[in-house]
Design brief:
By secondary structure, the protein is an alpha/beta fold. Helix content is about 30%, strand content about 25%. The protein is built from eight helices and 13 strands. It has a six-stranded mixed sheet. It has a five-stranded mixed sheet with strand order 7-8-9-10-13.
Length: about 240
């Protein structure tokens, strides 16, 4: 792997070994490596497969090594490379059943979220997007045998089937798009991106009750799960469990 500079070392000081972010145009997806096993958490925006493949090669893997693709939800910036990756790797796809409509581009957006639907339709057309079926439907509290064990946490609000993945071993939650974490603004997704905003509050409280010491969202500035957990607690400090 290429040597990273001292500034990046400081930014990554709390990153757990075995998590490798893949920076994309609109956010990050994550490669999870545990000994000789590798899984991909979300797939990024269309066109980012070379970055995914390069990172795999740096750690002695190739696309055929992918044991699974896990999806937090089905928005285009998370599933843009899904179909191509499935074709190249043969990896099974794990996601909540409610996300198939998003992956297929047929979700019936209503009210403010129609803006999200229009943006996704434009993106699918511009990039010649093709959908693929979910092979394993996730349910809340499912135990997955990946990366030392991941527990599914259903966190609707952004989408109906939006899920996080919780590592008991590391007390770490991969929180998807529950919130975005940047130095200039930690925030929930804007209203036009949320298809069931009435469920956001219960999802936020659920994460507060879980109280993970580390949180890694998909949209952030630095790959530092402790920093993002601190920012999440500040974002939700007005809430009671």
């Amino acid at each position: 792997m290429q040597e990273i500079d001292s500034e990046e070392r400081v930014k990554s000081r709390h990153m757990i070994p075995g998590i490798y972010p893949i920076r994309g145009l609109l956010g990050s997806c994550h490669l999870l490596v545990d000994d000789d096993e590798v899984v991909l958490l979300d797939t990024g925006m269309i066109g980012e497969i070379p970055r995914i493949e390069k990172l795999l090669h740096e750690h002695g893997f190739d696309l055929q090594s992918l044991r699974a693709i896990l999806l937090t939800h089905g928005h285009l910036d998370h599933v843009g490379n899904l179909t191509k990756l499935v074709e190249l790797s043969g990896a099974p796809v794990y996601a909540h059943q409610g996300e198939q409509a998003h992956i297929d581009g047929r979700f019936p957006y209503q009210s403010w979220s129609r803006g999200c639907g229009w943006m996704e339709a434009i993106g699918r057309g511009a990039f010649h997007y093709r959908s693929t079926p979910i092979t394993h439907f996730l349910k809340d509290e499912d135990e997955l045998p990946f990366w030392g064990g991941l527990k599914v946490k259903h966190l609707p609000g952004h989408t109906e089937g939006h899920c996080g993945f919780y590592s008991t071993r590391h007390n770490l939650l991969f929180s998807g798009d529950l919130f975005a974490s940047y130095w200039f603004n930690t925030h929930q997704p804007p209203p036009f991106l949320n298809s069931c905003p009435d469920q956001f509050l219960s999802s936020l409280r659920r994460v507060l009750a879980l109280n993970p010491s580390l949180i890694l969202p998909n949209h952030y500035d630095h790959p530092d799960p402790q920093l993002h957990a601190d920012r999440f607690r500040k974002l939700t400090r007005h809430l009671t469990i």
